Amino acid sequence: MNQTTFRPVSLVLLAPAAILLLSLLALPIVYAIYLGFTNLQLIGPHAVNYWFTGLQNVRQLLSDDVFTSSLWQTVVFVVGSGAFGATVLGLALALLLQKASGVVGKAVSGLAILAWNLPPITIAVIWYAATTSGGTFPRLLGDANHDLLYSYPMLVVSIANVWSLAGLSMIMFSAALRSIPTEMVEAAILENASATQRLFRLTLPMLKPTILMSALLMTLLTFANFTLVYLMTGGGPDNQTNILPIYAYLQGFKFHRLGYSALLGNVIVLLSSALGLAFVLIARQYRPGQVRKNKLKIISA
């Protein structure tokens, strides 16, 4: 039997990669955490001469009403439009494309993939023009002068985010649907199971790992979607779309408080890590093949 042996020369071979990771990943992370506990400024007396201030920024963070509001808006935007909205729309599109004709299916999938591949600045311009006064949606609703983006800012930017990410989610679910064994579907049909029963008792359980993966990926992509929200609303009106990435940017580059901005960035990392860990813990409850091993139990229509 072959046994794995440790060779000291392997440390020499791994040293360049370790040094690269340390210098480009670990040290910047540690430095960013440190800056969150300083009074560093972009412009001003503390732009060069800054120092460690302990928990001063943390105490200010805990008493910052704008931060509390921004944290809630971030959760709503990320979970609502990313983990839930984009995943549900992508799943719905993938299911509908299974029943659509060739031409219709290719057209819908092509448009969804096109929306996913558009740059965020293009998506922001499209939705800004379509939802502000004189845009397409106000005209369709019968009031061309109604500014939907101003009246419902979080809803509009969330819909724009869902629209931009649904194509990727659709691709993931389309591939997963093709992996469902046809004999299981045929057996369910022979048992006179309705389409609704097949969806909830067969298709969705088989898609559980893909649903979790899509929700996690959409969450991470939504966290990084700073450009879309900033170009459409700039965090307004009245801080209604002031999610944490925008709030951190404004604190650092508008109010010149880089130390406090770094602390907000650390909060973003912790929040995204917590959401990612939650998805991983949920995914660990799934065992590959579990659905196939269970006896197919479908109540006849």
TrEMBL record:
Domain ABC transmembrane type-1 residue range list: 72-281
Q: Which Gene3D superfamilies match?
A: MetI-like (1.10.3720.10)
Q: Could you list this entry's UniProt keywords, alphabetically sorted.
A: Cell membrane, Membrane, Sugar transport, Transmembrane, Transmembrane helix, Transport
Keyword presence, Transport: yes
- Which PROSITE patterns would you find in this protein's record? ABC_TM1
Keyword Transferase annotated: no
Q: What is its main location?
A: membrane
Report the transmembrane regions from the record: 71-96, 108-130, 150-177, 211-232, 258-283
The membrane-topology field of this record reads: Multi-pass membrane protein
**UniProt superkingdom:** Bacteria
Supply the CDD domains for this chain: TM_PBP2
Subcellular locations according to the entry = Cell membrane
State the similarity comment: Belongs to the binding-protein-dependent transport system permease family.
Report the protein name in the record. Answer: Multiple sugar transport system permease protein
The organism is Caballeronia udeis
What does the record give as the organism's lineage? Answer: Bacteria, Pseudomonadati, Pseudomonadota, Betaproteobacteria, Burkholderiales
